[in-house]
Write a structure and sequence with these properties.
90 residues, mainly alpha, 2 domains, two-stranded antiparallel ribbon, 3 helices, 57% helix
């Protein structure tokens, strides 16, 4: 299941529940994305090795796409992203 809700269109009970889950007040111009998934056991053996290899390949492609960005700029972008996350959590 996947559901997207606009924070200005949900009722007070839903807003209160979302704010409890988020651990902070919900902004007026925010959207909530709710997604449910069935739990499953982590892969083992060959399946786990294939999943790890796929992850490594994905990370390698991401690194290649960012290779042209100078190290100092990349550090600045990472710092900016971390600051944004910290602001959102407080």
């Amino acid at each position: 299941m996947h559901r997207i809700l606009s924070s200005d269109r949900i009722g007070p009970d839903e807003r209160a529940a979302a704010e409890v889950l988020l651990g902070r007040p919900l902004g007026l111009n925010e959207t909530l994305t709710i997604r449910t998934q069935r739990l499953h056991d982590a892969p083992v053996g060959e399946e786990r090795a294939r999943a790890a290899d796929a992850l490594r390949q994905t990370m390698k492609r991401m690194g290649e796409k960012a290779a042209h960005i100078p190290d100092q700029e990349m550090e600045r972008l990472i710092d900016e992203a971390q600051d944004d996350v910290r602001r959102e959590r407080s």
